[in-house]
Amino acid sequence: MSFRLAKLRFRRVFRRRKRQLSDAGEQADEHLERHVIRRLGHLWQVKRFVGLWVLVIVVLLGLVSWQTLALSGYYQHLLPAPGGVYREGVIGSFTNANPIYATSDVDESVSHLIFAGLFKYNANNQLVGDLASGYDVSKDGRTYTVHLRPNLTWQDGAPLTASDVAYTYHLIQNPLAQSPLAPSWQSVAVAASGPSTVTFTLPNPLASFKYSLTNGIVPKHLLQNLPVSQLRSANFNTVDPIGAGPFEWKTLQVSGSEPETMQELIALSPFAGYCGGVPKLGGIVIHAYASEQQAVNDLIAHNIDGLAGLNGMPETLKTAGGITSYSLPLTAETFVFFKTSEAPLNDVKLRQALVQAANRQQIVASLPYKTNAELEPLLPGQLAYNSKYVQPGFDLAAANQLLDADGWQTSAAGVRVKNSQALTFGLYALDTPEFHKVANELEQQWALAGVKVQVYFEDPSDFQNTLSSHDYDAVLDTISLGVDPDEYVYWDSSQADIRSATRLNLSEYNSAQADAALEAGRTRSGPELRTIKYQGFLSAWQADYPALALYQPHFLYVTSRPLYNLSHITAINSALGRYNNVLNWEIRTTKATD
Predict the structure, then answer these.
(1) CATH code of residue 224
(2) Owning domain of residue 189
(3) Which of 198, 402, 558, 589 is the most exposed place for a label (fewest CB within 10 A)?
(4) pLDDT tens column, 319-334
(5) What CATH number is attached to the domain comprising 474?
(6) What percent of the residues of the chain are helix, what percent strand, and what percent coil, each to the nearest 5?
């Protein structure tokens, strides 16, 4: 009975739930019909409203994105980044990377990057250690003991020791090697007194000796078995040079069959073992150009990134886009050297008149860069410089009075005459745009005082022969002064002698007072005492007028893309000084946030 009742109850519950599900389905259909199906017709009526809101949202998102990008410049800026290969053009040809032979602009550039010296110059043109960690000087000033950095290696992995340093200087001194550096190293005893110690013993004290220790050192283990007489033509110099500098040899490529179009490409890569640190550049390629015009064209076309060796800024570069020029002050000075040993310039009154008839400011204004007129043989800032000993400035009236008093009378032709001899002489200069301007200015200025000057412009080879033979009346030239005030080779009377190794006393200046002061100044070690000793030289030079001091020249370097950290260089001693900060050169950029 109970089973029957339970069965009936289950059937009633099932039928009730079935009716409920049916009612729920009908209600859902009714709601769907009422709230969705019947309202689909209204969607077309609101499409413009919906579309407008979608458009507004899209525009707002676009504006926010644009504003974010636009404002990024306010909190982001470009910073130099490591990497990239820098392509530098140099006028000339490549012949020898060996530092004991390299003399041309191209050779010196390649050699300077591959080989390291005991010392080098930093971005502030200060002498600092390269392979050397420091040095000591004996009390008598004759012995310099140089200490090498620890764990030095050559680019082939071999250890670099004091034996390599001594070997390098012995090679330079060996007459069979025929190194152009030899004259500066005669009578200097060099010895490796330990694995990392080198001693240099001089015949006499020399305060400026440390500045001569910047030439590259060569590896003894690669060259010692080669006959010295065959060293100049060794494959080491041109095929596989091994040094210890910041960059190492990679390859040499020659292109162009004609002399005018020939190019030599020397590829260098960073040397990870360089004692001064790894360069930031990924490499340097030196493009050696036989033609200056081809080099300029490639710079404009951005086939190279920088160009060294121009004597002036060509008009095509001035108007080309993306070109930046750097004017780097040289520790040098441009003079007119009067040959004081022969008439008519052996007359001190005439030389004084020529100095006062020269308008330096007008000459400086004609130069393609800004610089200062100079009035004495030392540059401002150099040790021993003293403004008390400057030459007189431009004063044409005073110059004419001096010439009148000296017996030079003005003829009907406007040229001064004395004892039936016209006041005329030849002025020789290198054939460059800069020297053309300077020499022509001087010719016109001296003509106003009744002095007739014949200017001769010569190519580098002929000009060098003129300088070597002293075959001139006067010569317009620039001499490198460097950091130290030792100017013995330019003004001591012994350096005018034909037997002199360099014969760089271009004025053939002979003064007992100047000689004594120059020799005393270079043999004293204390800066105060050296300053005092050099005053005698400055005083004699001021009174004797052996030359006309003109201006401090600059070195021109031109780039076709940004070259970061080159501008940090304050001054350089030569064209190679552009590399004083080469470890920090960068050409790539990256974005950074403040």
Answers:
(1) 3.90.76.10
(2) 116-244
(3) 589
(4) 898 999 999 999 999 9
(5) 3.10.105.10
(6) 40, 25, 40
Q: Measured at the alpha carbon of residue 569, what is the angle toward residues 136 and 181, in degrees to the nearest 5?
A: 50
Does 239 lie in the same domain as 251? no
Read off the CATH number of the domain in which 266 is found: 3.40.190.10
3-class secondary structure, 453? strand
Give me the number of domains the chain comprises: 3
In three-state secondary structure terms, 506 is: coil
Assess whether 355 and 459 both reside in one domain.
yes
- The pLDDT tens digits of the residues spanning 225-252 come to 999 999 999 999 999 999 999 999 999 9
- Phi, psi values for residue 21, rounded to 5°: -65, -40
Quote the CA–CA distance of 257 and 335 in Å, as a whole number. 41
**Residue 3: pLDDT over 60:** no
Q: How far apart are CA 233 and CA 98, in angstroms?
A: 10
Helix axes 512-523 and 527-544, enclosed angle (nearest 10)? 160
Nearest to 310 by CA among 325, 329, 330, 332: 325
In tens, the pLDDT along 483-517 reads 999 999 999 999 999 998 889 999 999 999 999 99
CA dihedral 467, 471, 476, 478 (to 10 degrees): 20
Domain membership of residue 24 (yes or no) is: no
Structure tokens at 561: 């893309």
